[in-house]
């Protein structure tokens, strides 16, 4: 490089920076629009990360986070050595994998809706299936009790009228996972199908018409045209779903939980609530929660890497 000549990349960087600022200035309304979401994510997702360190400390409220002594991996070791550790992990895994197995239902439902020719009927079905998503979880659990309660539940009343014995759906751990998962399918099936319905809107009408001219029936069009079109969306949603593989919902589990089904309903989320808020063991509960998060992140990274290698579709 000649002496006294400035590096060639400096003006390029300056120009690039100025171009970025110019684009932001031109579209400032859009940035203002997303500002509340950015502030929300920062306050409730990033800022609390500072408190993760209490999982490695013997946290005392009067000393604060930085004033509490370090404990290393003591709380993690305590959880792994807890007598019910494997039972809690098994319960969490069973419900999570059971829920994961229902992943294709929303896809099938979206494909079904896409085949409906009557727009009025299609919109009616969509509205009916979307509604449960907006019902409070407390109301959902009360509805489950009304239908499946042993003493006066609707299903048990029908079984008794048919000459069968009443079944302890909510009082027995045998049925807890099934009640949890299928009620969740009913509540979220329609809402979960929205993104696939949107993806199906991108299917080329010319491609479908060409398939029909070639003699393809509806099933063949779905298999060879519709599904390949939405496959990247399905893979992305599958990866994100794997990121919460052990994230069993606390609210429904806690509301359906009782002493009779505790052996199968005690999951990581409810155990964390018990030791953290009820027993005030903040460091221990933080360690349990972080343990769960690490497993979920591990699944997310692994599935994302596999998806990227197999299909070249990934979230990064």
How does this structure look, described?
- The chain is mainly alpha-helical.
- Helix content is 70%, strand content 0%.
- Helix 6 packs parallel to helix 10, helix 6 crosses helix 11 and helix 6 runs antiparallel to helix 13.
- The N terminus is likely disordered.
- Its main location: membrane.
- One of its GO terms (biological process) is transmembrane transport.
Overall average residue pLDDT: 89
Helix content: 55-70%
- Helix-strand sequence: HHHHHHHHHHHHHHHHH
Determine the number of helices (DSSP H or I, runs of at least 4 residues): 17
Which CATH top level class fits?
A: Mainly Alpha
Structural class: mainly alpha
Radius of gyration: 26 Å
Structural domain count? 1
Subcellular location: Cell membrane
Family: Belongs to the binding-protein-dependent transport system permease family.
Pfam families: BPD_transp_1 (PF00528)
Membrane topology: Multi-pass membrane protein
